[in-house]
Design brief:
The protein is of the alpha/beta class and about 270 residues long. The chain is built from 11 helices and 8 strands. The model has no long low-confidence stretch (mean pLDDT about 95).
Length: about 270
């Protein structure tokens, strides 16, 4: 078990590199609103991802594609107002960076200026190289994302594990090396074989944070609503549920309804 080597009052991109160097695993969770972000940050999480998974979790869409740049800025702004320690990373949403490096830069600048976030995350490697370079040249920290990239779900046609075949695995490793060379400060690897993920983590000096990528990487990320058991439909192998909030919340709501209807709430002490 890894123990913290250093106390950080505020997590920065430099902090994450130090953690990797010192062998300290990096903890990362999602948040999309002020209340959840305040709890997650207060617990001591290292990185908060304002993910485009808000499209699924908060808005009920089937994929991450529908969420807009304006909506991401709204969620990010809410999170930033709550955070005192964590590094806040915000996903650039689908369509805001893939086709035009200038548009990518404009999108990244809007997120940084309007939300106060600390960095952005993009999906892909070589194909979006020019967009990444443009953003980095403006002084905006970039986290990469390889493996299963949900914004490309209609291209893949499935959420299955990526890079099981040698050719795709080799390209993923090349992309990881490229992202480091370009200047990305960290990398998320999603749903790739554990052996490949560990190989990538050892091949590059920037932190590799996994989701469904085994324990040989430098940190882990989960969607908070999934690990708390608030969502019920999602059952991937990599997900560990630390609570069953769905059941606990349902029970609380039913008790409230019962108390209201039976006139047990409010009682004499709960009124003016």
């Amino acid at each position: 078990m890894s123990l913290a080597k250093k106390e950080y009052k505020r997590i920065t991109t430099k902090s994450l590199v130090e953690m990797k160097t010192n062998g300290e695993k990096i903890s990362m969770l999602t948040a999309y609103d002020y209340t959840m972000a305040k709890i997650v940050d207060g617990a001591g999480i290292d990185v908060i991802l304002v993910g485009d998974s808000a499209s699924n979790v908060m808005a009920g869409h089937e994929t991450t594609l529908p969420i807009t740049l304006n909506e991401m800025i709204y969620h990010a702004s809410s999170v930033v107002r709550a955070v005192e320690r964590s590094l806040v990373v915000v996903d650039l949403p689908f369509g805001s960076y893939q086709s035009d490096p200038k548009e990518a830069l404009r999108s990244a600048i809007r997120i940084m200026k309007e939300s106060g976030a600390h960095s952005i995350k993009v999906e892909g490697g070589k194909k979006i190289k020019e967009s990444i370079k443009r953003i980095l040249n403006a002084g905006i920290p970039v986290m990469g994302h390889l493996g299963l990239t949900p914004q490309s779900i209609y291209k893949f046609g499935t959420y299955t594990v990526r890079a099981k075949e040698e050719e795709e695995a080799e390209q993923l490793l090349k992309d990881a090396v490229l992202l480091e060379k370009l200047g990305c400060f960290a990398l998320v690897l999603e749903k790739v074989p554990a052996a490949l993920a560990e190989k990538v983590a050892k091949a590059i000096s920037i932190p590799v944070i996994g989701i469904g990528a085994g324990g040989g990487v430098d940190g882990q990320v989960l969607v908070t609503h999934d690990m708390l058991g608030m969502t019920q439909e999602f059952h991937p192998r990599f997900l560990r549920r630390y609570l069953d909030l769905h059941s606990e919340m349902t029970s609380a709501f039913k008790n409230y309804i019962s108390d209201v209807k039976s006139q047990l709430f409010p009682n004499d002490k709960e009124q003016y």
